[in-house]
Amino acid sequence: MRIVVDLNRCQAYAQCVFLAHETFRLTGEEALTYEPNPDDARRLQVQRAAAACPVQAIVLDRSDGAERSVTS
Amino acid sequence: MTMAAPIAELVRDYKANARIVIVGASLAGLRAAETLRAEGFTGSLTIIGDEPYEPYDRPPLSKQVLKGWVPADHTELPRLRHVDADWRLGVAATGLDRDTKHVRLANGDQVPYDRVLIATGTRARQWPNPTEAALEGVFALRTRDHAARLQQALAARPSRVLVIGAGFVGSEVASVCRELDLPVTVAERGPAPLVGPLGGVIGEIAAEMQRDHGVDLRCGVGVSSLEGDASGHVRRAQLSDDTTIEADMVLAALGSIRNVEWLEGSGLAAGIWGVGCDAGGRAFDINGVVTDSVFVAGDVARAPHVLYEYEFLAMEHWDNAVLGAEVTAHNMVNLEPHYYPHLLLPGFWSGQFGVNIKSVGVPPFGDEIAFVQGSVKDRRFAAAYGHRGRIVAAVTFNQGKWLPHYAGLIERSAPFPPPPSGWDQPDDLKPIPAEFPEHGVPTAIPDVVLTGHDPSERRAEFRPRRR
Known about the structure:
The structure holds two protein chains of two kinds. Chain A is an alpha+beta fold.
């Protein structure tokens, strides 16, 4: 699955780190880094983390992008 | 009969049957495509990208990717909806013919459009000497391929890395080198790191931060040349102060160049600062007249901003790409008076040396700075930037939670220095010069003067971003 965190919004509440520590990490006190393409086995964990974010900064795939047709 | 009914019919017909082409398949291009569909556009949509990849996110490239935590090809952006587009990836646009309304592609194809969105962004400025740039071990960092190559080279444990340029990319890479326990030298022509975006006062703090973490930071020096060994691998660099640095890996972090060359001959207001457009993303032609069918979003757009005396701002910020794309896409399938303005309060972040640096507003618009909260010594503080008695920007080091407070003050054109917060107040709140390099040297005083508005008479109402 693909995710992106809006780090303008992120306030380092660290709920995501608590709920999905393999995917989200804090460097220092408040710099969040994350795995943008976590394994599908972690989907539920990551969904919970996204739901728990107090500023709703975690954006998940809502579509699989399967319509892609590359012609060039 | 009023005109309202035929106009509504026109918009409906347009949304059903028009052909829209988006040039640029990165963050702005993708979010624009999604917004077009969300707005009910069911016509034909083509997305053109010069890289062979689906849209991916760039901020991780200089951080978690280089650390080796995340592979470079794991950075694809999440999809918010099906865009049902004809993706033309791996082929660059080479021209825009506004008379016949076609985008020309490098493979000779011509793609017709009714409306086109320019979202071609920027590219990394390469080391200017092509022979030296071609040495093995010399890198740039902008794309996913760059990041993959750079990560491999770091993993091979070079004996010393030379980073040329201490902007955000250079500083972040220097930070990663130290985390990987690699010796790193940073050469910066200016007096300190981050002077362009944040000024010399903050730059001095960033410089201390680098030195505390073991970076060999050299400011006020340029790199004159790079030298390779017999096998063509970079070995050393000559600096403008006649010193030599032995380094077997070099990152040229020299900033970016806007991708506007393909627009030559299109008659658009395109130049080194990007493509001029109104706050709704409608491109200006070469005479400054707004066009009806050409739109711009993301890094390559430059538009007047109500909060900054209507100066044209080009913003290479992540949320500018997202929100600019959303606003512009809306406007591409609607008509006056239903246009949205893109009046983003700019903001960016950077993670380096364990410190989260965040900013709102336009710091270089300010000329004074005041430390308003926290402690510089602990690298945990907020500082406000002022211009002519009002607050125009703020920066935080590990104090991001306070940024929305200052964003509110900036949106209201509140006085500078701002009133004391009453919490975690430093001893000295007195404003000092922010020490930005002069704007637009050598033509700092233009013979045509920009006429801004008087902030006390603001009629435009600024609202924080919708979402």
